[in-house]
Amino acid sequence: MTTRLSSRLLTPLHDAGLWLMPMDETHRDALREACAADADIWVIYATSFAPAQFDASFDALIGSATRLPFAVFVDDALVGMSAYLRLDEGAQTLEIGNSYIVPAQRGTGLNGRMKRLMIDHAFACGVRRIEFRVDTRNSRSQAAVRKIGAQQEGLLRAERITWNGHVRDTALFGLLESDWAAVRDRIA
User: 74 partner at 20 to 30 Å CA-CA among 12, 52, 115, 165?
Assistant: First the structure.
């Protein structure tokens, strides 16, 4: 990963009361509280941000050179997170993942709005392909990825072992700029 593209990608993004801020240590306590709002959801995530695992997971997220995480704010309240992952500047690809939204904001169009900011920004920075890797047990996330125009390209069987020892099958989705152009204006 080169610094040039990663530094262009990891910049504040905003739209009408929604802010995606590059995540850092100052977000720890507010994100801990947001992630505790649905402690049961973490069983279907590759990494747990539940109270018992939060600090180690947070440290790994902000300490990783291969993840570009954002804290998600609605007005002044931290309501979730998302990240650019697996950035490959030579191939002009990346993954969007590590996304979580507090229960009170689910179903409000927030996910579409934050993905719109991230996708528009990634394509504007020269990325030509965006991937989403979703646990096959997570039907809500799969539906959200399809809604933004991503195409399921395959199933990665036994692709990873999650934090709780589950051997995960992962649905792989790809999004090209032409896919995005076909649905962009219908996204929140």
Answer: 52
